[in-house]
Amino acid sequence: MRDANRLGNAMKLHAYGRSSASFRVRIALNLKGLSYETVSHDLTRDEQRDSHYLSVNPQGLLPALEDDGAVLTQSLAIIEYIDAKKPEPPLLPREQLARARVRALAQLIAADTHPLVTKRVAQRLRDDCGQDEQAVQRWRLHWLHLSFRAFETHLATSAEDGRFCHGGSPTIADIALVPQAVVAEQLGLSLNAYPLISRIVEGCLQLPAFQDAHPDNLGRGEA
Amino acid sequence: MRDANRLGNAMKLHAYGRSSASFRVRIALNLKGLSYETVSHDLTRDEQRDSHYLSVNPQGLLPALEDDGAVLTQSLAIIEYIDAKKPEPPLLPREQLARARVRALAQLIAADTHPLVTKRVAQRLRDDCGQDEQAVQRWRLHWLHLSFRAFETHLATSAEDGRFCHGGSPTIADIALVPQAVVAEQLGLSLNAYPLISRIVEGCLQLPAFQDAHPDNLGRGEA
Which helix (H) or strand (E) element contains residue B125? Predict the structure, then answer.
């Protein structure tokens, strides 16, 4: 664990560069222009299970956000908090059906996809289920393809998608999609079969808020 | 698939009795006193993958809610929509840090627990990973214990829990917790090790809104 430079009352983000849930929160903070301090916990060294961090987040998962004397967990809950704390630019549309659509797209990734392809699941498949690397890879690609197909169909059957998943500005749907797409490509999944996803991800990654949050572009203290 | 009695503009809930994400939405609708029509899709017969239902929800997962000409998916997104549509009684506290806490508890279940113990995951473990029933059971109990331990610690380290996960009235945290606890007990997990969870679940199940949503208590058309 490594503490970045301390700022007075800045929010403190417990994160790891290659954790895609951490990546989501970084994007949201960047879109809002909020400054924050990063405390990096190296997942590859299981630092998220250190007793100190467990006292911050008993689940031992990343990210967590410290703000105003409180510790917030779960990336989507953190992002809705950030959105309420600094309303502009909004990360959810105003209208209720539209909010539900955007939340559902984000949850398709955060609840139905990401939890199945995490490091802790791969470890369990190896250590307790005796699966080799090839089987673990097949497992990950299975869930990724299933979800991306559903996500693509959601986009294709809605009149709401535009430059982004919902209209002309990024929402929590894009914030959830992009890190998962980056992980998927690293695992060898080609986004060519998903042209709408592909176009949106490409568009997002042209924005500084997404670029600066990308694990490849983090400074030393944040990675 | 079976259509219940049709009501004019009533909301239509695509659900299955023993789907715990459907259970969540039923609780929310009951707490709000909203009437709805149920379209039941039998998960044990894979009816959620019928082409008709796939045209409603391309992900082929339950639940989905039809309202106002739109189809909403993802239980927590649906519940936030219901909460906005009929604000009383509120399913989230007003204050932003409290909202984040309640959403995080709900997501601890909906994102980090439930997706790992679903029927589709058990099927994959059997069919593609060659796991026997004992190994599938071990897998489920592993993730359930891990999450319940974290949930219990969240409750124990907060001043906010009361009769319910957050204060004196049910929120989305209780709505997510109760169906998962019911599933866990069906799988043979005893809640004795989690006294705060146990007390809250017991208290919730004394309320008609939770009782009436319980898979054991559904009428024929809803089960």
Answer: helix B119-127
